[in-house]
Amino acid sequence: MNTSKVPHILLGGVFGIGCILLATPIIGALAPLIGVEYATLVYILGVVYAIVAFGEMLPLLFNNFAFMYLTVTGIAVQLPEPNLYLWMAVTAVAAGY
C-alpha cells in the first residue's frame, strides 16, 4: 500500500464523481443550443479531454482515478436505484486508500 497515492485517489475520485453530478445542469444548459445528444457528447469530450490534457499540470485532480470514478459513477447513475449506487461510489472513494 503506497500512502503517497492517498490524496490522488481521494481527490481524483471526488472530482470524477463531481463531474457526473455536474453533467445534468451543464448538458441541460447546452441542450437548447445544440440538442441533447450533441450536448452530451460535448460534455463527455470536454471532461475526458480535461483529464488527459491537464493530468501533467494538476495531477491531484486530473488522474486515472478521476477517469475511473467518472466512468463507474456514470454507469451507476443509470441503474434502477441511482441514489444507492451513487452513495456506494462516494463510499468507495472514502475507503479507496
DSSP helix fraction? over 70%
Low-pLDDT windows of residues: none
For the CA atoms, what is the radius of gyration?
Answer: 14 Å
Number of domains: 1
The CA-CA distance between the termini, in Å, is 8 Å
What's the tally of helices?
4
Q: How many distinct beta strands?
A: 0
Structural class: mainly alpha
Helix and strand element order = HHHH
Mean residue pLDDT: 83
Coarse shape = flat
Q: Could you describe the largest sheet, including whether it forms a barrel?
A: none
Portion in strands: under 5%
Strand and helix map with partners:
Layout (H helix, E strand, L loop, with lengths): L5 H29 L1 H18 L10 H13 L5 H13 L3
Helix pairs in contact: 1-2, 1-3, 1-4, 3-4
Descriptive keywords:
97 residues, mainly alpha, 4 helices, flat
Walk me through this protein's architecture.
Helices cover 75% and strands 0% of the residues. With 97 residues, it is an all-alpha fold. It has one domain. Helix 1 packs across helix 3. The radius of gyration is 14 Å and the shape is flat.
Brief digest:
The protein is an all-alpha fold and 97 residues long.
